[in-house]
Amino acid sequence: MMKKIVLLTGAGMSVESGLKTFRDADGLWENYPVQQVASHEGWLANPTLVTNFYNMLRRKLLDAKPNEGHRLVAKLEEKYKVTVVTQNVDNLHEQAGSTNVIHLHGELMKVCSSNDPDDTRFQQTLNADNCEVTPGTKAGDGSLLRPFIVFFGEGVPMISAAAQEAQQADIFIIIGTSLNVYPAAGLVRYVRPGTPIYLIDPNAVDTHGIDNLTHIMKGASQGMKELTDILM
Fold first, then answer.
1. Exposure winner among 36, 125, 171, 177, fewest CB in 10 A?
2. Which one is catalytic: 70, 93, 103, 105?
3. Backbone angles phi, psi at 226, to 5 degrees
């Protein structure tokens, strides 16, 4: 039986693809206050600003390509049963070939009802030829069409499914996240005792209390090359 690998990936996974993180000094929040563009209150106050912000992010995403780290994560499926749990809203894991991806914070290329974002009847997937939403566009239920993004302060609907995956992991891999953003950071606590945990991040990360952890202090691509040599 194939062993199960569960990965938790964060913003550092996509940095080499040209997508800025939100929290670094030159990150996206520097020019766009988070409460204005990524909170429910910000959406209610100025949906046009929020809609245009995510239109801009989609244009940036369309210029990005999966990096070697994304491709090596997908390659793990040759020998393992793999689930990717990502904090990222880009679709670079899917572009690289990963077939089982859980998006904790939503998906940039999707839009939804502002009355009920999780109502699949009114979710739409955008594409390269139709990546921008005109402010004021309505969803099928008559509400404003909003980004399919989990805004700050909102619940994270996929966290239970992600926790179940973490509990089943034979190997748990963390890539490009500071383990400071909850509830995602808490997933490592669901991993069974004794399970090997690998952390790929070039920066120092507070891993206090996490047992059986190996920290590969490299970026996503170089770190995955090193880990692939171990696992494959």
1. 125
2. 105
3. -65, -45
